[in-house]
Each structure stands twice: as structure tokens, then as C-alpha cells.
Amino acid sequence: MSGPVNKLGKIVAKINGSGLPSFLRESALSTAFNAQVKMAGVAGIHVESLTEQQSVVSLKNTFRVQNHIGGVHACGMALLAESASGMVFGMNVRDSHLPLLKSMSMNYVKRAKGDLKAIATLTDAQRNEIAKEDKGEVLVNVVVTDSAGDSPVECEMRWVWVPKRK
Fold it and tell me: Which residues have a Cβ under 8 Å from the Cβ of 52 and sit 6 or more positions away?
């Protein structure tokens, strides 16, 4: 596949190809995403990088997202994983279709320490399926790690795409 397949991809391509220093590029990507996904903006989701193959997003362990034991709240972890998976998935869905989260499964396996980072990826086979099929579903791989490098949560994000109603 070559070139962006939708408006989101075109915006991201302009930002990524702008020659901006990384901190400004990340700020522009974060602003663009958080303007569309208000909850992500409220929580402070930060977009580190975004391509058609991968998204890398982070969430600082600040007071507004903490639970009663001082770690990032379970809902914050879920928002981070959903955001990462939705971004990379959304980069591949044509403008004539709707990207929808069908299901998410979160298994919290250990206490999160510090800030969190989520990396979501799509395989070439998944990207080709999204490009060619009129509707379908994919399981987007997401790995969430904390400041210690551990994975405090195992997540499964199932996304679908369907044609928009006319």
C-alpha cells in the first residue's frame, strides 16, 4: 500500500514529514488526536509516534489519573490501550468506513509503577485485509509497559470496520 488511505493519514503524514523537532511533532500529533478524542485529552494521552503500522502513546502518572494506591487507574490503562490500538487501526480504515471498537479485554496482572507506554501494531496482512474487505474485524496487538519495563496489564482490542450509512 502506498500513501495515506484517509484524512487522518494525510494529517499525520503532513505532521510526520514536516521536519519539526520530535517534541513539536509529538505535540502536534497529540493535539490532533486529543481534539477528536476528548477523554484522551482530559487524561493527558501523549502521542509519541504514529504510522500505518504502529502507534506509540504514553500516559504520565499524574494526580488526575491515579487510583487509591498512587498508580495509574485501571480506566486510565484501558484508555491508553484503546487509544493506541484505535490510532493505528484508524490510520488504515478508509474514509468511507467507520472504525468501531467491538470488544476489549483487560487482565490486570501486577501493579503499575510510574508512567505508562502503549505500543500497538498491525501486521501487513491485517492492513491488507482492512484495505480490501468491505467490512471485517481485527485483533490489534497492544503491549502496555510501565516505568520499570514491566507489563502490568494484558489487553486484547478487537476493532471492526463497516461502511458508513449514506
Answer: 1, 4, 5, 9, 88, 91, 92, 122, 127
